[in-house]
UniProtKB/TrEMBL annotation:
Pfam families: DAGK_prokar. It is a multi-pass membrane protein. The keyword Transmembrane applies. It comes from Corallincola platygyrae. The keyword RNA-binding does not apply. One of its GO terms (molecular function) is ATP-dependent diacylglycerol kinase activity. Belongs to the bacterial diacylglycerol kinase family. The lineage of its organism: Bacteria, Pseudomonadati, Pseudomonadota, Gammaproteobacteria, Alteromonadales. This is Diacylglycerol kinase.
Length: 122
């Protein structure tokens, strides 16, 4: 098998990544909603964070939601590709992906809540 190497591999990987982001934007409403939320929260993170560590936590937590949502969407796509009939393992895989997204959102709420509380209440 002929493997692409070097700069061409980087170009291909970048193209595939953009295709994945485009597919998520077009086909996943949750991804669109979360991306819009991230775009709103990024300037707030810069304002709310008092130093680089806080800003990194705030920004990183919201970007993590997008990462987890992309992985959840990938699990759903593969599960649907295998078969659309109801199957216990398919349901479990989709539920676990959904749970991962929920935990990433709880992570955002916890980090943002702690930093906001420290800044405004303490």
């Amino acid at each position: 098998m002929n493997q692409v190497k070097g700069f061409r591999r980087i170009v291909n990987a970048t193209r595939y990544s953009w295709q994945g982001l485009r597919a998520a934007w077009i086909g996943e409403e949750a991804f669109r909603q979360e991306l819009i939320l991230v775009l709103v929260m990024l300037p707030l993170a810069v304002w709310l964070g008092t130093d680089a560590v806080e800003r990194g936590l705030l920004i990183g937590s919201v970007l993590l939601v997008l990462i987890v949502e992309l992985l959840n969407s990938a699990v759903e796509a593969v599960t649907d590709r295998v078969g659309m009939e109801r199957h216990e393992l398919s349901g479990k895989a989709k539920d676990m992906g959904s749970a991962a997204v929920m935990i990433s959102l709880i992570n955002v709420a916890a980090i943002w809540g702690m930093i906001a509380a420290e800044r405004f209440l303490l």
